[in-house]
Amino acid sequence: MTAVSIARLKITLDDVEPKVVRRVEVPFSIRLDRLHQTLQAALGWTDTHLFEIRARDVGWGMPDPDWGDGPLDARKATLASIVEDTGAKTLRYLYDFGDGWEHTIKIERLFDPLPGVSYPRLIEATGRCPPEDVGGPWGYAEFLEALADPEHEQHADMRRWIGEDFDPRQAQSDQLAERVEKLARKWTRKPASRKARAT
Question: Are 52 and 94 in contact (CB under 8 A)?
């Protein structure tokens, strides 16, 4: 294995039907705050809530200086370091503490990077991410039930609220892949040349 191994991750959003599953490839050395951004992009979340990545009984997120008992700083840990420190091959990802979206992250394998490929990258997407602020898995089930039944008392309200045709089985893979690719481009920018800086 090279110094810059790539990890293939399978991310499953727990407790929702239809299934929401993503496979992404990330540098094994990725910082956890960047892993969070990658998960947001790949899943289709909007990064408007707090998060925590857990390995065994240890959690990383964005610590609140006014709250001393919070998670460890995700900017100061890498995927490789937490796997090495905890021995965990499966992680938990909690997004939006109010709605309580829980995800299972499995490290499927490590491999050498492919030539000419930028990471992170999305390689598989199944199912559409629920809308933000829908009320967690229970609220999402209610939302889908109301959308599917024109006779449901909340059907019109939910259609107005979502403002578009919402197909829970349609992952919108191209849009998600572009979001992840945008992160890869941002994080692998070449430093400006001396000549460019001098002008």
Answer: yes
